[in-house]
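Narrative of activities, Objective 1.

The group set out to show that a structural description can be obtained from nothing but a protein's sequence at a throughput compatible with the screening campaign. Below is one input-output pair from the validation batch, recorded exactly as produced.
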Amino acid sequence: MALHLRVEAEWIEQRTAEPPIPVSYPSARRLKRELEPWFRRERLVAVGAFLPPPYLGHLVERWPRLAAFAAALDRRLGALPPLPALADHYLAVFVRRD
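Output recorded for this entry:
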C-alpha cells in the first residue's frame, strides 16, 4: 500500500534546468506536523550549519583544516537546538507509526 503525502510549503523555481523545476523547502516544524499522523520524527540534524555555502567552496580548499573543524562541529552539534531550525538545510529521519 502506498502512502501519498502532500506537504504544504512555499515553492520556488529552480532555474538551472530547462524547463524550470519547482522546488519546495518546508520548515522542519511544518514537515513534522504534516507527517505526524503517519510517522514520528526520530531525528533532526542541521546539515552544513558550520560549513560555508557552495559558492565559497574555494575557502574550503584554501583552509582545509578549518573546513575539517567546521565539519566536525556539524557532526557534534548539528542535532542540538536551535541549529536544525536555523540552518539552511536539515536532515529529518521519520519512522512509520504502527
